[in-house]
Write a structure and sequence with these properties.
Layout lengths: L1 E4 L5 H10 L9 H4 L12 E5 L2 E6 L2 E3 L2 E4 L9 E2 L4 H17 L4 E4 L13 H8 L3 E12 L6 H4 L2 H11 L4 E6 L2 H13 L9 H10 L4 E8 L2 E10 L4 E9 L8 H15 L4 E6 L13 H8 L4 E11 L1
Parallel strand pairs: 5-7, 12-13
Antiparallel strand pairs: 1-2, 2-3, 3-6, 4-5, 7-14, 8-13, 8-14, 9-10, 10-11, 11-12
Length: 319
């Protein structure tokens, strides 16, 4: 087996491998990277190849001896099939040998949390730690484990239950799955401006992503009459996890509880369509000096939907 650089000739095989892998997500697909405008990122993806076939892959970028994964995506690190511990050790060893031989001085890898795996194990995590990696960062994320045998509303806190039921009895309030990004994006901009930040994606980015990956993006819009008052843009990342990438509302319509209603609809849809988890995303205090600082209020709000903590870990090594 050898580690080689990715070239476009491998694109079809790369994406096929991700879709058949144990831990790959939409964020590992070349189709996903294509949404970035030309020249925004210079990628240096790597592949572990055995007898002409991909055995594992690693998206990322090399800058001045620093290899980072992901770049331009939420999750990265090594993508594999359902492998043994011995195979995990071999992949990590090969990667480090490749780094030493090719002037790579540091690796920083952030895999998707374990809930994204079809067969959950921590072989790669341990193999990296045993061979010299250490944890650089931990982000706290929240996810709802879905269960077709449990009543969705009953899982929520008493206040959330009451509010959701009230919206269900209010005919003016409805939720649609549609493609009205023109209605959603102004709400997104307004929400982000309250925290002095800009969205990860431009309006054009979202349209491009929807064009490239129509099955992976679904927009749940909340209306009061004909007025759009909130929405959730869901990334169906793989067959295991639905990710709430943006949950937004018009604050003038807070009394109608659009986020609570849309969360119910998202959990219901994801449960009925066979997903294992709804990931509600990270809950960090973005204004704190330490990037790991938890946002207590955001975490507690997510817990009201029966979300539990999962960690998004970043691994680092200096060669």
């Amino acid at each position: 087996m050898e580690v080689i650089k990715y070239t476009d000739e491998w694109k079809e095989k790369w994406d096929k491998f991700v879709l058949q892998s144990n831990n790959g997500t939409m964020f590992h697909l070349q189709k996903f990277f294509d949404y970035h405008t030309s020249g925004k990122f210079k990628f240096d993806h790597l592949m572990f190849v055995h007898k002409g076939e991909i055995a594992a892959l690693l998206p990322g970028r090399l800058t001045n001896g620093y290899f980072e994964s992901p770049v331009g995506a939420s999750y990265g690190s090594i993508v594999t099939k359902d492998i043994t511990f011995a195979e995990s050790m071999e992949f990590v060893s090969l990667l480090l040998d490749y780094g030493r031989k090719n002037g790579i001085k540091e690796f920083e890898l952030t895999p998707a949390p374990m809930i994204y795996e079809t067969f959950q194990n921590q072989n790669l995590d341990f193999a990296m730690l045993w061979q010299g990696f250490s944890f650089k960062l931990h982000y706290i994320s929240s996810a709802i484990k879905l269960d077709k045998n449990r009543d969705i509303i009953e899982r929520f806190s008493p206040t959330i239950r009451r509010n959701v039921r009230k919206t269900l009895k209010t005919p003016e309030i409805r939720v649609e799955i549609n493609e009205r990004y023109d209605e959603f994006y102004p709400i997104l901009l307004e929400n982000k401006s309250r925290h002095d930040v800009k969205p990860t994606h431009s309006y054009e980015d979202l349209l491009r992503l929807k064009e490239l990956m129509p099955e992976n993006l679904k927009l749940f819009m909340v209306y009061f009459g004909d007025k759009p008052i909130g929405g959730s843009l869901m990334f169906f990342t793989n067959k295991n996890v639905a990710l709430c990438f943006y949950n937004m509302l018009l604050y003038d319509y807070t009394e109608y509880k659009p986020i609570q209603r849309v969360m119910y609809e998202v959990v219901k849809y994801s449960t009925e369509n066979g997903y294992g988890y709804v990931d509600i995303g990270v809950s960090q205090d973005t204004k704190a000096e330490n990037p790991m600082t938890p946002s207590m209020s955001l975490i507690e709000f997510k817990e009201k939907f029966d979300a539990k903590t999962i960690m998004r870990n970043t691994f680092y090594i200096k060669l």
